[in-house]
């Protein structure tokens, strides 16, 4: 359901940090924050789609000054309630176009959130917005899945990713338009609910072209936060583009 907070309104925000997904495990978040702290290299960091501060709070704990942008007041309220959350500045707005003061040595957009921008124009605008916020030598980090089209047999659009007694979840792909959605069916006390979030899936090479349009160039592409090499079997990637000096 969409409201003024987008797809991350109160009902999502109140349960967001209870997830049992590995993305919320302490060691996974710690490695993420360590890599980002290294890339910030003593400068300020800008998180696009900061949410509840899953990554921003541990990054700030590592001594990095973090500022965030997010559409959802409900998600940001959870960040504010965390120890250290008050020290993190947040601007409410669309990260494709919202500007904040000063420059940053690091901007980052994790957990597939680039795909929340559902048009190519918005994704390109996001790269341009980031580039305008980066100091020369600064970098932009994106963590995003590789589209799972290899799991689609001809004529089929759905990729299930959760099947259980009380819930099912599946992605729907439209390969003609590059639109997709993640869909969740949950049954509680015999009553079903359905939630659908729209995305635009995007390939690594297309992201490189967006970076090029914004004046950035690829520095690294890893399979994940452990910095393992990205291969043709990698389910996702962490990519780092830099703003050239001079
Ligand atoms: C999957 S959550 C990720 C939150 C956090 N980065 C994390 O890793 O846990 C996506 C977040 O991006 C925000 N978001 C999605 N689209 C946005 C947009 N166009 N502008 C600003 N925030 C957006 C949502 O409100 C939500 O808080």
Automatic annotation (TrEMBL):
A GO term for molecular function: methyltransferase activity
Keywords noted in UniProt: Methyltransferase, Transferase
InterPro entries: Methyltransf_25 (IPR041698), SAM-dependent_MTases_sf (IPR029063)
Pfam families the record matches: Methyltransf_25
Stretches that traverse the bilayer: none
UniProt domain Methyltransferase: residue ranges: 46-138
Biological processes per GO annotation: methylation
Transferase listed as a keyword: yes
Protein name listed in UniProt: Methyltransferase
């Amino acid at each position: 359901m969409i409201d003024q907070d987008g797809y991350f309104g109160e009902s999502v925000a109140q349960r967001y940090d209870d997830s049992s997904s590995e993305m919320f495990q302490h060691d996974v978040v710690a490695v993420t924050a360590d890599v980002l702290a290294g890339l910030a290299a003593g400068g300020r960091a800008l998180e696009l789609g900061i949410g509840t501060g899953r990554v921003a709070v541990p990054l700030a704990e590592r001594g990095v000054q973090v500022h965030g942008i997010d559409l959802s007041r409900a998600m940001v309220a959870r960040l504010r309630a965390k120890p250290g959350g008050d020290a993190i500045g947040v601007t409410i707005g669309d990260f494709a176009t919202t500007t904040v003061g000063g420059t940053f040595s690091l901007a980052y957009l994790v957990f597939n959130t680039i795909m929340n921008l559902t048009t190519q124009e918005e994704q390109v605008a996001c790269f341009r917005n980031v580039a305008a916020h980066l100091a020369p030598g600064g970098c932009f980090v994106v963590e995003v899945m590789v589209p799972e089209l290899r799991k689609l047999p001809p004529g089929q659009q759905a990729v299930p990713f959760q099947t259980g007694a009380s819930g099912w979840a599946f992605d729907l792909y439209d390969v003609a338009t590059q639109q997709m959605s993640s869909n969740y069916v949950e049954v509680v006390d015999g009553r079903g609910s359905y939630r659908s979030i729209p995305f635009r899936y995007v390939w690594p090479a297309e992201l490189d072209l967006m970076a090029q349009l914004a004046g950035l160039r690829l520095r690294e592409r890893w399979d994940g936060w452990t910095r393992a090499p990205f291969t043709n079997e990698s389910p996702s990637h962490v990519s780092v583009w830099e703003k050239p000096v001079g």
